[in-house]
Amino acid sequence: MEKLKQNIILFDLDGTLTDSAIGVINACQYMQKKMGMKVWDKADLKFIVGPPLMKTFTEDFSMDKETAEQAMVTYREYYTTIGLFENSVYPGIEEMLENLKAKGKRMAVATSKKEELAFRILEHFGIAKYFEVIGGDKREVGRDNKAKVIDYVLETMEAKKEDVIMVGDRMFDIEGAHAIGIPCIAVEFGYGDRAEFEEYGADFIAATAGDVADLF
Question: Which listed residue (12, 14, 137, 151) is catalytic?
Answer without folding.
Answer: 12
